[in-house]
Amino acid sequence: MIDDLPLYPSARPCVRSGFCCKQAPCGFGEWNASETACVHLAGDRPGQYACAIADRIKLDPTWVVSPAFGAGCCSPRNLDRSRTDERRSHSDSDSA
Prior knowledge:
By secondary structure, the protein is mainly α. Helices cover 29% and strands 4% of the residues. It has a two-stranded antiparallel sheet with strand order 1-2.
């Protein structure tokens, strides 16, 4: 498996919120029927989302930085990030 990109300076680590794939599909993706997310967005809820074809994309010689797997999120509009961060901190404190 090919590694993710390094975290971009000033970006925060990806929390698998699905935010990017709900904004617009990348060059390898396409909208779902309702145009609310990429058809390749897998997972049931924020914190569990992932690209179902990420391994295939990373093997494509044209993949360089888009989609930016692992480069992190820096969008202030990503409200799912704060909810996902909050859920993770609660589960971490519950397991401690």
